[in-house]
Design goal:
By secondary structure, this protein is mainly α. The protein has three domains: 85 residues, Arc Repressor Mutant, subunit A; 90 residues, Orthogonal Bundle (Arc Repressor Mutant, subunit A), CATH 1.10.10; 86 residues, Arc Repressor Mutant, subunit A (Orthogonal Bundle), CATH 1.10.10. The chain is built from 17 helices and two strands. Strands 1-2 form a two-stranded antiparallel sheet. β1 and β2 form a beta hairpin.
């Protein structure tokens, strides 16, 4: 193995890094977290004024990634992080890595959730609930979690205050959409928080009212100023989960319902979809096939009319009145002759 010798013939300046940090803390830390820590040391040494967004831009990361790094080094006892009351600035004190960890002396951060799964972050790694979440995530993603994945799970629970059961629910939702990364799950979590959705029950209700299928059905039925009721949601659940229909087929049934009833009727649409389900419909080609089969079993209006005429003709032929010789009379000629006769009498 070749050795590397570093030399320089100019004084470029330097950022001092503790030997203890390199030997004790750096080997087990996430590389992105190490970069943030070193950059903080650099800014402290040079007196450079920075913000969280500046650090995020410098590394081409999200601000949430920077805060995760802060939180990690705070747990390691190398940073002391506090936010001002206004929430617009953050104070960071860099602690010596040569001293004992002082995190145990700090008060535990309280989450905004009253939930039995809201454990202090320092205990999460060892908790059975968190181990279950990690295992479940690996099953959903079909791969082992990286260090960064675990950090995101910790951040969502400890910093965003999201219960573990809600995190697992969001992971399941993400996988159903073909997204198997926790960055996407974190974005989903932030959307819920923006809508003040903070429990698993509330999240399920939120997704019921905001799923793509629900929105498309409401649009097809012209329902705009209200959320769908529980019974209406039950119909949609039946169509998607029990019958397994895609959204476009469900919307087609809704369109046919309006064309026939001229009003939104979930029960009528359910009748259409139930028949399609019985006939094994899974595509528009199958719908076309069932329409053609239905048309063959129903007589056309023209055939009914012809049949009616034939029936009347058969009845007339049996009438005794028709035994008399029928005369072919010209109605226009009769009218004209009557008119001329009346004129001659004047």
């Amino acid at each position: 193995m070749k050795n590397i010798t570093l030399t320089s013939d100019v004084d470029l300046g330097y950022t001092p890094v503790s030997h203890s940090f390199i030997n004790k803390y750096m080997p087990s830390a996430n590389g992105e977290f190490v970069k943030v820590y070193l950059y903080l040391l650099h800014c402290l040494d040079t007196g450079k004024s920075i913000s969280v967004s500046d650090i995020a831009d410098f590394f081409e990361k999200e601000e949430a990634d920077v805060f995760r790094a802060f939180r990690y080094w705070e747990k390691q006892g190398l940073l002391s992080v506090s936010s001002h009351a206004s929430g617009e600035s953050v104070s960071i004190k860099i602690l010596s890595p040569d001293t004992k960890d002082t995190v145990a002396d700090r008060s535990e951060k309280k989450t905004s959730f009253q939930d039995t799964s809201a454990l202090p972050c320092d205990d999460l790694h060892e908790s059975e609930s968190f181990s279950h979440l990690v295992l479940a995530t690996e099953v959903y993603f079909k791969r082992s979690l990286r260090h960064t994945d675990t950090d995101i799970l910790l951040y969502m629970h400890d910093d965003l205050g999201i219960p573990l059961d809600l995190i697992e629910f969001l992971i399941c939702q993400a996988v159903s959409k073909g997204k198997n990364n926790l960055k996407y799950v974190e974005a989903m979590a932030r959307t819920l928080l923006d809508s003040d959705v903070r429990t698993l029950k509330a999240a399920k209700e939120y997704y019921k009212n905001n799923s793509d299928t629900t929105r498309m059905v409401a649009k097809a039925f012209g329902i705009q100023k209200r959320n769908l009721g529980s019974s209406e949601q039950d119909f949609i659940f039946k169509w998607t989960d029990t019958f397994g229909f895609d959204t476009d087929i469900i919307v087609e049934a809704c369109n046919r319902t309006l064309k026939t009833t001229h009003e939104p009727s979930f029960s009528y649409a359910d009748g259409i979809l139930s028949k399609w389900h019985e006939k094994g419909v899974v595509s528009f080609e199958d719908i076309k096939r069932t329409d053609e089969e239905h048309a063959k079993t129903v007589k056309t209006p023209g055939n009914k009319k012809s049949s009616s005429k034939a029936s009347k003709a058969g009845t007339a032929s049996k009438n005794t009145f028709n035994n008399f010789e029928q005369r072919n009379l010209d109605f226009d000629t009769i009218t004209k002759n009557a008119f001329l006769a009346a004129k001659s009498e004047e």
